[in-house]
């Protein structure tokens, strides 16, 4: 039973004592802890209640105790939107519905006999159980129907592993919620304090004031939150994939249990998904703003009076969020949800020979993201670049995103420059220029000498006279106008998501890096950091004083079943309680993410990183070479 | 590394002195992987490194020696602290961090994992 000490005993956590089969709370309190104190009475009370309700009249056996705990946690895990569904429909049936899909081999991951699943254990003092549960909130709700008789036969082996899974998830969530409610502390972690004493917080590169609090919270809730999920389709078990890879299914499955939940091991995968989802959010915004530019263009150039409602239309934020989440859904069809856990695990198996249940680090997880992105390309222009501890390699970035080109100006005389004013570009303008990309076709375009007020530099820009109204993005430094007619340059074509793996210490983080980490968040192109505290991956999105703001994937939720894909609730993908981590408890590995769309932005990022280097000298973290 | 350090201090001291005298442009380094690391070990752990070599170049040499891909994270430590920045020379690192026996001890390891 030792596998129940899955949670770090050095921290103050609720755990199950494997010998006694009892929940207990360990309360060693490190000196440097400065978060909220435990509400010991409440905590003890709730743990005693759970222990009490797991006891039963008959002689205690490990199996019956397991079943009892899992009934409790099974109910506990069904808070929120999935609660009612779960109660009416046993999880098992839902699972069967999933595995009917042709895509998956038929071997069902969990096969718990219905007779046992539905039987609970009679306990003493039922009334006191339900009433005291109310004191710790809505999260445990034991209904009468769940308190039935003891199972007649001992549960079979696979049923036990199923129950163990439920308990593992239950403890994870219990820890999460006891912490949320302030009953329990987790070393280094505290809910965000946002008041007179701590008036400011930085989310990405934006600073928010606690008056009004809501402005920050609205933005925080917009961030897509991925957590552990359970009851998804068994991992590494899709016929199509196994056949393609030439894997002998029987041999592969000989010594393993097919996992249908990532609780206890998938946190880095979830963190990787979160940072990529952030990048996708930016991609969507870019798409929308391009559409706007195009509409403006059509309006101006054709002197059309398009109704303002079109040019000022705001896309439905919820819908955009749902579209992004869809790309990450577990259980999804391979191509529609390329970043779901099934795909992730399969790519990781092919690439790194990792099996479901293996842990990931920042760079292994980001390598899988890159491989998935190269394979499925949900956004045609997005390219992921991974840099190791030696910093961002400028050349690699340019090679990935730039293409040599020449542009011939037409002999036609200059057009009215007023046309371009809508785009923040002013200067000479030629209508029928031709752009020739290296190894690519010639395209008709409009060429103008442009000025970008933001950077106060003169540049060459080209506008293609096509439907999508793209603005071409030249590398100014490389632009040469050879004979007044031909422009030679490099064209920036990609949006880059750059992940830089850095190390901030041997076992503990070195304190002189704290300021640099905060400064990195202030760079407008930063999309957050993948990292964590010891053994636990977290997605960092901002900071307050010497604490980092994060989204925590260590919370188990029901996976979205395939039947509900068209109309699932996105509520479970928003985190409502912002938490912070004392930087002294940071894990020493960090993956810093940057997202740049244009040549100018990349130049700007380089400038900002160089400025950081000048400021922090040898303590600098992300270098550029 | 244990094997090396288990030699008497006096012997190590005289070894390093000898080497430094014989190769004035190089520094003696002992490089090995952390005992918890799952990375491949180096075939040899004693190295003579040109003083002018940059930290970055040294790291790339080791990376090659243990055949680790560019994308995988690799971290170096001296005296349980991060290796100084990439553009310092090995001579500088040596001068600041050498052991009392006259050798510079460098440990490498992979990234941390979490679940």
TrEMBL record, chain A:
Q: Does the keyword Hydrolase apply?
A: yes
Instruction: Write out the GO MF terms.
Output: cysteine-type endopeptidase activity; protein-phosphatidylethanolamide deconjugating activity
Report the catalytic activity.
[protein]-C-terminal L-amino acid-glycyl-phosphatidylethanolamide + H2O = [protein]-C-terminal L-amino acid-glycine + a 1,2-diacyl-sn-glycero-3-phosphoethanolamine
Q: Give the source lineage, highest ranks first.
A: Eukaryota, Sar, Alveolata, Ciliophora, Intramacronucleata
Q: What is its main location?
A: cytoplasm
Q: Name the source organism.
A: Euplotes crassus
**Coiled-coil spans in chain:** 595-622
Kindly provide the name given to this protein in its UniProt entry: Cysteine protease
> What are the residue boundaries of the Peptidase C54 catalytic domain, all occurrences included?
214-607
Record's Gene Ontology CC terms? cytoplasm
Q: What is its EC number?
A: 3.4.22.-
From TrEMBL, chain B:
Its predominant location is membrane
The record ties this protein, via Pfam families, to: ATG8
* SUPFAM superfamilies named in the record: Ubiquitin-like
Query: Which Gene3D superfamilies does the annotation name?
Result: Phosphatidylinositol 3-kinase Catalytic Subunit, Chain A, domain 1 (3.10.20.90)
Where is it localised? Membrane
Kindly state a single biological-process term from the GO annotations of this entry.
autophagy
Which residues, per the entry, are lipid-modified as Phosphatidylserine amidated glycine? 115
Task: Give the UniProt entry's GO cellular component terms.
Answer: membrane
State the UniProt keywords alphabetically. Answer: Autophagy, Lipoprotein, Membrane
Q: TM spans, by residue?
A: none
Signal peptide range in chain numbering: none
| InterPro entries with a match to the protein in the record | Atg8-like, Ubiquitin-like_domsf
On the tree of life, the source organism's domain of life is: Eukaryota
In the record, the note on similarity to other proteins reads: Belongs to the ATG8 family.
- Protein name, per record: Autophagy-related protein
């Amino acid at each position: 039973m030792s596998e129940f000490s899955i949670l770090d005993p050095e921290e103050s956590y609720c755990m199950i004592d494997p010998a006694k089969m009892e929940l207990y709370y360990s309360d060693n309190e490190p000196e440097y802890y400065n978060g909220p104190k435990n509400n010991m009475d409440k905590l003890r009370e709730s743990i005693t209640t759970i222990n009490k309700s797991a006891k039963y009249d008959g002689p205690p056996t490990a199996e019956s105790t397991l079943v009892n705990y899992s009934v409790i946690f099974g109910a506990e895990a069904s808070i929120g939107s999935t609660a009612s569904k779960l109660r009416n429909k046993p999880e098992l049936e839902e699972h069967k519905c999933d595995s009917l899909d042709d895509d998956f081999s038929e071997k069902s991951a969990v096969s718990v006999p219905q007779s046992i699943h539905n039987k609970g254990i009679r306990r003493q003092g039922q009334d006191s159980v339900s009433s005291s549960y109310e004191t710790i909130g809505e999260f445990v709700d034991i209904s009468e129907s769940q308190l039935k008789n003891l199972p007649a036969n001992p549960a079979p082996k696979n049923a036990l592993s199923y129950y163990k899974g439920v308990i593992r998830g239950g403890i994870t969530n219990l820890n999460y919620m006891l912490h949320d409610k302030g009953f329990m502390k987790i070393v280094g972690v505290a809910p965000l304090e946002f008041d007179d004493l701590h008036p400011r917080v930085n989310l990405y590169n934006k600073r928010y004031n606690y008056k009004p609090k809501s402005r920050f919270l609205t933005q925080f809730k917009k961030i897509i939150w991925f957590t552990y999920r359970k009851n998804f389709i068994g991992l590494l078990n899709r016929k199509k994939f196994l056949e393609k890879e030439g894997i002998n299914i029987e041999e592969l499955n000989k010594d393993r249990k097919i996992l249908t939940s990532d609780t206890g091991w998938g946190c880095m995968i979830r963190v990787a998904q979160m940072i990529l989802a952030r990048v996708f959010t930016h991609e969507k915004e870019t798409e929308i703003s391009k559409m706007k530019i195009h509409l403006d263009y059509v309006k101006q150039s054709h002197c059309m009076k398009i109704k303002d409602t079109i040019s000022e239309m705001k896309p439905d934020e919820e819908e955009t969020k749902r579209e992004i989440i869809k790309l990450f859904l577990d259980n999804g069809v391979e191509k529609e949800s390329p970043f779901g856990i099934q795909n992730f695990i399969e790519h990781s198996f092919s690439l790194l020979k990792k099996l479901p249940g293996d842990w990931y680090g920042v760079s292994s997880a980001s390598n899988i993201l890159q491989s998935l992105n190269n394979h499925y390309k949900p956004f045609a222009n997005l390219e992921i670049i991974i840099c190791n501890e030696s910093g961002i390699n400028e050349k690699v970035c340019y090679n990935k995103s730039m293409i040599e080109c020449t542009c011939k100006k037409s002999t036609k005389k200059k057009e009215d420059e007023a046309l371009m004013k809508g785009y923040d570009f002013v200067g000479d303008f030629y209508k029928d220029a031709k752009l020739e990309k290296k190894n690519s076709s010639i395209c008709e375009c409009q060429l103008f000498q442009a000025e970008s007020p933001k950077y106060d530099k003169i540049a060459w820009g080209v506008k293609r006279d096509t439907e999508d109204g793209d603005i071409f993005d030249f590398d100014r430094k490389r632009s040469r106008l050879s004979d007044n007619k031909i422009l030679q340059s490099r064209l920036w074509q990609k949006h880059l998501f750059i992940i830089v793996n850095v190390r901030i210490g041997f076992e503990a983080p070195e304190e002189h890096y704290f300021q640099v980490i905060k400064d990195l968040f202030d760079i407008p192109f930063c999309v957050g950091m993948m990292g964590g505290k010891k053994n636990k991956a977290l997605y960092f999105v901002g900071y307050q004083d010497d604490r980092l703001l994060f989204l925590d994937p260590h919370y188990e939720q029901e996976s979205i079943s395939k039947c509900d894909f068209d109309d699932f609730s996105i509520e479970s993908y928003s985190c409502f309680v912002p938490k912070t981590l004392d930087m002294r408890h940071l894990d020493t590995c960090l993956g810093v993410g940057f997202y740049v769309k244009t040549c100018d932005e990349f130049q700007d990022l380089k400038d900002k990183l160089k400025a950081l280097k000048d400021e922090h000298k040898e303590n600098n973290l992300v270098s550029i070479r | 590394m244990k094997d090396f350090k288990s030699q008497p201090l006096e012997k190590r001291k005289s070894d390093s002195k000898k080497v430094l005298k014989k190769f004035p442009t190089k520094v003696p380094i002992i490089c090995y992987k952390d005992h918890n690391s799952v990375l491949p070990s180096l075939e040899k752990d004693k190295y003579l490194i040109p003083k002018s070599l940059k930290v970055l170049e040294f790291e790339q040499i080791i990376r090659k020696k243990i055949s680790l891909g560019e994308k995988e994270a690799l971290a170096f430590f001296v005296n349980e602290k991060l290796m100084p920045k990439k553009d310092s020379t090995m001579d500088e690192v040596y001068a600041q961090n050498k052991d009392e026996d006259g050798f510079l001890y460098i440990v490498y390891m992979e990234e941390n994992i979490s679940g």
